[in-house]
What we know:
Blueprint: H1 2-6, H2 15-33, H3 39-47, H4 52-55, H5 57-76, H6 82-93, H7 96-102, H8 106-135, H9 140-169, H10 178-192, H11 200-205, H12 216-223, H13 225-254, H14 259-286, H15 289-309, H16 313-340, H17 344-375, H18 378-399
Helix pairs in contact: 2-8, 2-9, 2-10, 5-8, 5-17, 6-8, 6-10, 7-8, 8-9, 9-14, 9-16, 12-13, 12-17, 13-14, 13-16, 13-17, 13-18, 14-16, 15-16, 15-18, 17-18
Amino acid sequence: MERSKTIQQGLKENRNQFILLVIANAFVGAMVGLERTVMPDYAAERFHLQSTSVLLTFIAAFGFTKAVFNLITGYLHQHTTRKNVLLIGWLAALPVPFLLMYATEWWMVIAANILLGVNQGLAWSSTVIMKVDLVGAKNRGLAMGINEFAGYIAVGSAGYLASTIAHQYGAGFYPFVPAIVFSVVGLLISWLFIRDTTHFISAEQQSGTQTYFSFLWKEVSYKHFNMGTVTVNGFINNLNDGVIWGLLPVWLLMNEYTLVQAGALTAIYPAVWGISQLFAGKLGDAYCKKQLITIGMLMQAAGLLLMVISLTHISVMIAMVLLGLGTGLVYPNFLTVIAENLLPAQRSKGLSMYRFWRDMGYVLGALGAGWLADLLNIQTVFIIVALLTAFGGMLAQIRMCCTFKLFWKSHSCIEANAY
């Protein structure tokens, strides 16, 4: 009887473990947040880098490694516990602050971001999958919203903290000192207090009604109407996030914003992204996800275009809010669409495949944006990415299906996993 209590799914039934996973994920987000506002100054101050394409190699290294380890996570979960994978992710994070603080060559920054990608791929993926294990189907969207809320609020807060420290003490060393605390505390929480959730799968598997997919990679990557479309949009979403991460601070500094002003404005985007996911995830539990995704992608496109049209303080603030709201609408619902279309036994692999493609967007975004910014200009890059993001939103509206409408007519699926 006691054993059956331990495998009862639900947010309320597992709130203590869920809260611990949320806290752990916040520390994962804080690790990467420290880099989001200060890297242009850091690269210029320590390495005298001027080329945008060279500067953005750190994002490409991070994105590629994170994508690969997102994929590996699903396979590791077949052979060891979720908690073990989470701990490996935190161990990879421990050298990161020291590499950044004491880097004497640019390759050391790349190495730090490779390890950061391992941390993000293993630790963030594991916290996502463990929360899905805990809550069951009823509150899956809310759970994903809370997870992404915590992670991206931490990203924005850490980014603002880093820019404040850099303004006071310089960008070359001190902004990365908090990462020592983040990595150690994240590791200790995961090791001492978080319990494994692998045993929840067998209980849920008995009541699963989804289809078993023989060629899961193909279904998640492109074939399945809902999952494949979400994967394409996830790729585009992170492509534009990689562009914003790499080029927005440069763009603002070029246009006479101070480092602190640029840091504060840049932090609005992940902060709004994080907060809005609390509501977006719950909306996805109640309403049509395809329309939430369409609206979210179009809002992001509008935000990117606004930065090209006007660079006044208020315009940039509105653009950051549009980008944050748009990304917040889509991010938890991407994850939920994948999770709800897969049997529990295939969910970890399927989510990992989606997260692989999604984070490969960082690689193309960073390398492509850097090359185009050097070849053309940053305004042109923003316009190209805005058009691509709008295309993703329209693809979701045309190709995805749901069983009811939200704001406009929506064709229905015969089954939850129809394609």
